[in-house]
Amino acid sequence: MKNGRFVKQKVRQMANTSEVIYLGELRTEAVHLQSGNKLITDAPKDNHGKGEAFSPTDLAATSLACCMLSVMGIVAKKDGITSGEGAKATVLKVMYAEPRRIGEIHVEIFMPAKGFSEKERKIYENAAYTCPVAKSLHPDIKQVIKFTYL
56-149: which CATH topology? Predict the structure, then answer.
């Protein structure tokens, strides 16, 4: 396409990340090529699917929380701050219509009771807000992030 959305280009010699196979009945199987791990997706019930697995948009929303927690762990290790091991996140994906798309992703991160200093809290929160997935999502997708320190 000429609008810049889909561009044919030469690809550098890099290893593929995954392989995705359409299994029929609105289901796919994705294989992470480096590890061999597999995941299944289904179209959601409200979009003609069975809803028996993550939908592709569920994965997009969930990826935000996974990325936030991972980058927080990297920063804690690099900066030598109190570990956030045991942190947990809940994700709410809100779909919009016309066109059907992810409109909002709500992530609540529950930090374990470890007495984080105010400085550590700011470091963790900045890491989450600036993770690669958060920075890669379209700016029209509203990201609502809440931290709860137990």
Answer: GMP Synthetase; Chain A, domain 3 (3.30.300)
